[in-house]
Amino acid sequence: MNHPKKIIFCDFDGTITAEETFVAMLKKFSPELSAKLMPEMYELRLTLRQGVRQILESIPSEKYPEILEYTSTKKIRPGFVEMLDYLDSQNIPFIVVSGGLRGMVETVLGDLKNRTQGIYAVDVDTSSEYLQVKSEFEAGNELVSKVSIMEKYPTQQTIAIGDSVTDLNMAMQASLVFARDRLSHYLNDRKKPYIPWDNFFDIRNYLNKKDQLS
User: Fold this and answer.
1) Which side of the chain, N or C, has fewer Cβ within a 10 Å radius?
2) How far does the chain reach from its first CA to its final CA, in angstroms?
3) Distance between CA atoms of 196 and 96, rounded to whole angstroms?
């Protein structure tokens, strides 16, 4: 079986979206618990698996439609479609790996979700009074173990795109990392090389230039 030479694994919240969407949603729908637990997660004193689950499961299920409506207005970071066009031209698979809610990812992406090779995120059960978290790839300190998802896809080069603490483990394992915001600081502390970026044009242009040189 022929495996692709490169695969991109891309975070969603604050990466595909121009602003933090999942984090903002948690703050809006569970403000007190978010204020208490988020600083602990950012300082790596509380695992994402523990913190995000606690916050999500404090939100009433009846709020879920409102969560999706809140998400629907969020903007995608510039250059995203153009980067997807480039990846298609080079036959490079693009996979979304999110520590947030699948419903939010699919709401923002709309028809663009059909241009991904997969979307991995947190599912929720709304049949109880409060949201119940369901995640096929819950492992270690994460609700969505992005490294476990990467391991499903054999390739010569894993490329990670991210911006925050949910992308740290993935970035440490990837061959090539595009990092911005908090993720840059975590990687600096760990002396892991990365390419800084601001929008998806930056990533497309870097990959294009690298392909031309190779």
Assistant:
1) N
2) 24
3) 19
β-pairing, 118-125 vs 132-134, is antiparallel
pLDDT value at position 74? Answer: 93
3-state helix, strand, coil split of the chain in percent (to 5) is 45, 20, 35
Alpha carbons 28 and 82: distance in angstroms, whole number: 32
Backbone angles phi, psi at 175, to 5 degrees: -70, -40
pTM for the full predicted model = 0.94
- What is the C-alpha to C-alpha distance for residues 75 and 179, in angstroms, rounded to an integer? 19
Q: What is the pLDDT of residue 213?
A: 65
CA triple 98-104-106, angle to 5 deg: 85
Give the span between the Cα atoms of 52 and 26, in whole angstroms.
9
pLDDT in tens, 110-166: 999 999 999 999 999 999 999 999 999 999 999 999 999 999 999 999 999 999 999
Backbone angles phi, psi at 4, to 5 degrees: -65, 150
C-alpha 49/C-alpha 46 separation (Å) is: 8
- Confidence band, pLDDT 50/70/90 cuts, at residue 38: very high
**pLDDT of res. 211:** 72
User: Considering just the CA atoms, what is the radius of gyration of the chain in Å?
Assistant: 17
- Strand order through the sheet with 176-179: 132-134, 118-125, 94-101, 6-10, 157-162, 176-179, 195-196
Alpha-helical regions (H) of the chain: 22-29, 31-42, 48-56, 64-71, 80-90, 102-109, 146-150, 168-173, 182-189, 200-213
pLDDT of residue 1: 52
